[in-house]
Amino acid sequence: MFGILCLTFHFMVLLMLELDIVVGIIIAGFNFIYSYIATSSVHRVMKRSRVERDLRERVLLQNMRMSIVTLELEGYIFFGSSVKVMDEVRRHVLVTTTEKQEAQTSSLSGSSPMLSTRRHAPSPYVARSLEDSFNDDLATLDSVFDKHEPHGYSSTPKAGKSGPAALHAARTRYFILDFEKVSGVDATAVRSCFNATKELLAQHGIALIFASVPTDAERLLRVHDVIEKEDGSGTGSLVFDTLDKALEWCEDELLVSEGVLPLSESAPTTSGNNEGQPWQLLDELLPRPDGSHRKTELNSLTDTSKPLGNEVSSAAVTRELGEMYVTHSLKQEGETLYRAGGLVNGVYFIGYGKVDVFMPSKIHEGLGPGFRGRKRITRVCQGGLVGASEMILHKRHQFTAQARSPSSIFFLSKSHYARMQKVHPTLAARFQQAMLQSMAIGVLESNLTDD
């Protein structure tokens, strides 16, 4: 600003006053545009939802999470910065080389895959399994028309269901724009950027999702049919209140695409009598001492030619042992497991359902200015644990845990766990292994993301 004033003074000395005013306005206009472009930023972040799932789902998502691309927008988004947003979108979206060749063919025939008039035509890649994207080479969208392919990526073949694969690039399936740090959006940016981004991604069967959109920006996006209506109708993209909820939805969709239904919505079906079902469920969720699956042990039980080891039989959660050490209860939506400030008496295992662990509004807002409402720390689903780290680190609960759907809860108290370690050490080792696995994979997920 000081430089503009000095430049204006020199023009006043050398030129006429009227001409100086015109030149000053032009220079101020360019400075305005440059300052907004400089303050707005776009960069990719690696995030995961704050949902704690069972070990099987968490391992699957660890391999598939790279197919979710999250761009964090910051500052004021207007027509000058929309070019930067579009460039970043094209630079971070990965498609298979087969799709790239088809895009090049369509460009030669005169049709543009960037701005197609077939707004919501079904893409042939939507129904494709994620299996295909792990066996093809990948390329970014900004190299679609580049014959030299400067941004090529080789995807590692996907591991089988028996073992996880190393972290690798994956074909983009979901693209999230996070508006949490956006101060405002200009109407020109909606038309020149977000509508074009929606069309571009739709051509490749990629879902565009918006998160944490300011109220004014959300109104503009709805007017231009970029996002869905308030009642959920329309052909616009999905919009979520927070990035965490957007990531949770994407992860659920990825699990469904792999034929794995999320285990948090309803009670699982188990064989046997109703009285023994809860303990059978707990036995199936706990890791086995030999690392084998439940079906393997059932086969060994029915095979009379093979002797049944004492370790396997003593580690099984029978109804008798379950009632001796563990308290089973059914919680309805809204019921509380424990409250912040209460004594830590044990650990909770989620049989099925959903439990939210959150910081209450009174505590959250008491941290200082700028903190509003309650803050969700994590959501725990079937096979997850609640309160394990607090049982180890604290004497009182730091957060509140509340059921968000009808849930089956298993509670193991400190005293019963101590007695189990003495009387039934093999069974206690399974509970200990469950707690260690949960905390270990939580640390691994945090290391792989920008949490």
From TrEMBL:
Superkingdom classification of source: Eukaryota
PROSITE patterns found in the cross-reference section: CNMP_BINDING_3, STAS
Domain STAS: 67-250
UniProt keyword list: Membrane, Transmembrane, Transmembrane helix
Stretches that traverse the bilayer: 12-37
Gene3D superfamilies reported in the protein's UniProt record: Jelly Rolls, STAS domain
Protein name, entry field: Sulfate Permease (SulP) Family
Domain Cyclic nucleotide-binding: residue ranges: 325-438
Lineage: Eukaryota, Sar, Stramenopiles, Oomycota, Peronosporomycetes
Recorded coiled-coil stretches: none
